[in-house]
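Q: What structure does this chain adopt?
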Amino acid sequence: MTNEERFKAIFQDQVNRPGADDLLEWLENAGFFTAPASTKYHGAYPGGLVEHSLRVYDYLISSPYVVGTSAESRAICALLHDVCKAEYYEQTDGGGYRVNDRFPFGHGEKSVYQISRFMYLTDEEALAIRWHMGAYDDAARGGSRTLSAALSLFPLVLALHTADMLATQEEQQRERK
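A:
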């Protein structure tokens, strides 16, 4: 099974909200399944984004910190936390990637916005996706105290951030070898 097939199978099995099918179609058309996860940090190759999203999913579903969170919410957050990276990168002449952000709305907040165009998010899901970068988010680095407030409301906020960091570290270590 390819990463795209696995992503779609999990998504279609776990996510049962109105608009989910339209969102999945948009992901296909927006190049989500062929996009890199970054320009150079991890997953900087075609399909890196979907591979990263699946790795985050694997970490999040096994997290002990999301006991009260539904399987649907965990799937939504893990699989969709980086949809902001669809239609975000373009290939360079040298074969690498560069950012071409046609809608500079921020990172986590852009993912929330894009998902919400198709499907409803709970407050817990929206905050987890919005703050999945944790202290690396520009707002948190700039002194915003909103991250702390979000962390205190829902364990999923920290769990998604942790899953994202673990997946990224694993990818970086694998790519260095």
